[in-house]
Design goal:
Blueprint lengths: L7 E7 L8 E8 L4 E9 L1 H5 L6 H13 L2 E4 L2 E4 L1
Antiparallel strand pairs: 1-2, 2-3, 4-5
């Protein structure tokens, strides 16, 4: 059930505005087991500056994986959510 970057379509990339220095990457993800119709990730200038247009789907996938597999510690145990 692994999702690959080919299932991600980049809608657009929005430059920072106001006090926020992060770029917004809007995307859709359509797979047999999951669908995200209006997704977005926020990335900093250094991250977006090192990625080509063709590399943005992988950036989205890596960011989602990182956010969804965050490790938290409570008491003396570490769990992966």
């Amino acid at each position: 059930m692994a999702v690959d970057a080919s299932k991600i379509q980049i809608i657009n990339t929005v430059s920072p505005s106001g006090d926020d220095a992060r770029y917004t990457v809007n995307f859709t993800l359509i797979d047999d087991n999951i669908g995200i119709s209006s997704g977005r990730i926020l990335v900093d200038k250094d991250t977006i500056g090192n990625v080509t247009e063709n590399g943005k789907p992988q950036l989205v996938l890596d960011t989602l994986k990182s956010a969804l597999t965050a490790t938290t510690s409570t008491a003396n145990t570490t769990t992966t959510e």
